[in-house]
Known about the structure:
Order of helices and strands of chain A: EEEHEEHEHHHEHEHEE
Number of domains of chain B: 2
Order of helices and strands of chain B: HHEHEEEHEEHEEHEHEHEHHHHH
Helix content of chain A: 25-40%
Number of strands of chain A: 10
Number of domains of chain A: 1
Structural class of chain B: alpha+beta
Number of strands of chain B: 11
Number of helices of chain A: 7
Helix content of chain B: 40-55%
Largest sheet of chain A: 6 strands, mixed
Shape of chain A: globular
Number of helices of chain B: 13
CATH class of chain A: Alpha Beta
CATH topology of chain A: Rossmann fold
Distance between the termini of chain A: 17 Å
Distance between the termini of chain B: 40 Å
Strand content of chain B: 5-15%
Strand content of chain A: 25-35%
Oligomer: heterodimer
Largest interface: A-B, 36 and 36 residues
CATH architecture of chain A: 3-Layer(aba) Sandwich
Amino acid sequence: MNVLELVDVVKRYPGDPPVEALRGVSLAVREGEMLAIVGRSGSGKSTLLHIMGTLDTASEGTVRIAGFDTSTLGDRQLSAVRARRIGFVFQQFFLLDGMSVLDNAANGLLYSGLPLHERRATARRALERVGLGHRLRHVPAQLSGGERQRVAIARAVVHRPALILADEPTGNLDSASGASLLGLLHELHAEGATIAVITHDREVAAATPRQVLIEDGRIVADSAW
Amino acid sequence: MITTVPAPSRVHAAELFRLGSVGLRTRRLRASLSGLGVAIGIAAMVAVLGVSSSSSANLLAQLDQLGTNLLTVTPGNTFLGESATLPHEAPATIGRLDSVQGVSSTASIANVTVRRTDQVPVSNTNGIILRWADLSLLATLQGSVYRGQWLNPASERFPAVVLGWVTAQRLGIVDLDQPTQVDVGGRWYTVVGLLRSMPLAPEIDRSALIGLPVAQSDFLTSDSPDTVYVRADPNHVLPTLNVLPAAANPEHPEQVNVSRPSDALAARAAAQGTFTSLFLGLGAVALLVGGVGIANVMVISVLERRSEIGLRRALGATRLLVGVQFLSESLLLSLLGGAGGVALGAAATWVYAQVNALPAVVPAVAVGGGLGAALVVGAIAGLYPANRAARLSPTEALRTV
């Protein structure tokens, strides 16, 4: 079953002349798959990530997430898709400074309507899973980069999303922390999570079961072909 | 395959408070400074309302106590513009009116000074006026003595004087423990009594009062009064006021002035209201400035927290929820400021009332109005920043550094 399906997706940014960031991208991600989308900066991979994550909409083509066509959905419904079906991991972590590690992870469930104590209980399990069970009461500033990204991963998986989108997850980490973090992503994949890693780092890509190479807004190679 | 759209993003209503307080908790100093702006405005308004309520509560209480049925009859002017006089039988004719409960007359005695001793220069009058008064004056004015006693049928025939409140102060006489004499027109008079202040007859406060018989023998004054005080039936004050000129001087009622001294107090209570609106206006300006401060801080906050907005959108917040978060932050900020301001204003009112020995009154409308005004200011100040935060596209918000 496809978690995500892109068919002939074009993304055009208005301007003179208009900029085409994606020029007819077709991509299917199956449930339980782990793939890397690789490309140099400016290749369109960030745009692709935003469209896969419903943060942006395609100018042309079809985007289906867990079976429904996103072009027919409004802001409320797209937000609901993100809240319940997608987990994001960003290069800059984007943790909230004033909150404990536990509450930061619980933010993954913030817009689910669950009461705070349930969100915290679930977040505690997710943090234990990523190896931060001893850091619950700390604030992000007290953590190392690798630990912060683990908190971000706990936040991304806490609502058991259908798809985890990781945008350069190791981009701000030293190589040892980066390797450890990739190891964690592989473990989560082994437990059944569907993960798409966007990266410019071919070493990171080489370790994933499927690699998709993107250049100038087009997919030029896909190891699944 | 799941084809139903997931349940919409939502947060508990109680959660909005937590959401709104995130930004405030992380930037406490900035939050308290911008809340202070609103607090000052609200405090000014509450204090103004509280202080003026306390003072007019005091004035109205005074008015209640003094009564509004005291009327004053004085001579006016003749047709030719010369000073008229009241007929000497005016008190008697006024006293015949059914609605009159008490009549007393008094007149000033010109060209006689009252001095502490004969060593004080004659020109040094201290603004003290010598008057003769009939024995019922104190009862009609509902005044009281705080030392000694009022004139009586015996003392009114002898050089005895009763001093008004201000007169006693100006002569430096605070008690009558020792026999006290003052110089009245060159003759020693014994001070037999000191009066308390009479707010409805301030001219008596500044007078030295002697009996009519002694005034006639010492200073050859006539018995025609220049002021007649009338206590009217409280239920017929206005009709009495209208017939008094004719009763006092049937031949020339147009040469008689009648006034109601309590009107002056009532006017003072009303005048306090005018000041109130002036200061309320100033408070409103302060509140407006506070609101601009909040709007400013919120706009900066939206700019600074772009990545947080992007993150929240990625976590599933709708535009509305992002907007509501910033709006509730602004409301919370102004509400905290407003609550602080109400407390501050109430405290200022209490201190003012304590210092001036007034009853401390903070009207409920000032408390409710203060909090309400703060909320309105917060809502207006937060609207633009919240809208801006809501409209920020998630991809733009996440494109940081």
